[in-house]
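Tokens as discussed.
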């Protein structure tokens, strides 16, 4: 039940963010679904025992793939779906914990939080890059 509530929360969060970012109305639901599915993948992979870094990588890969497919089907830029969809994965809490640890002068915790935050951000970036590259390879051979 907790996973369902969190997934619905991710849907609402992406819907709100996409509305503020003025995503076209016909694409709001699609962007929100992508974000919700991405968060669901993250939660499931964490439950399977993957680290937060690997779970973020898997989730970002799914989000990136869904964004590319949606962009082709709905004839819209990939970034419209990708930016909103990736929102639930952004390690904002990690950034906050890093800054908090820095202010409280707990150097061990600063390095731990900073390392995890950078690894998660890197995993998301690498997943998007790999998915984008693979998608371009397959679409380039079709033309």
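Sequence:
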């Amino acid at each position: 039940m907790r996973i369902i509530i969190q997934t619905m929360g991710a849907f609402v969060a992406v819907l709100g963010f996409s509305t503020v970012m003025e995503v076209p109305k016909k694409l709001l639901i699609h962007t929100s679904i992508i974000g919700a599915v991405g968060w669901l993948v993250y939660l499931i992979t964490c439950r399977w025992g993957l680290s937060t870094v690997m779970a973020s990588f898997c989730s970002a890969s799914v989000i990136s793939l869904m964004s590319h497919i949606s962009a082709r089907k709905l004839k819209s830029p990939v970034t419209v779906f990708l930016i909103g969809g990736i929102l639930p994965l952004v390690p904002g809490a990690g950034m906050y914990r890093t800054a908090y640890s820095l202010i409280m002068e707990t150097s061990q915790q600063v390095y731990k939080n900073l390392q995890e935050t950078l690894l998660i951000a890197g995993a998301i970036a690498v997943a998007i890059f790999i998915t984008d590259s693979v998608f371009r390879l397959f679409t380039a051979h079709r033309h």
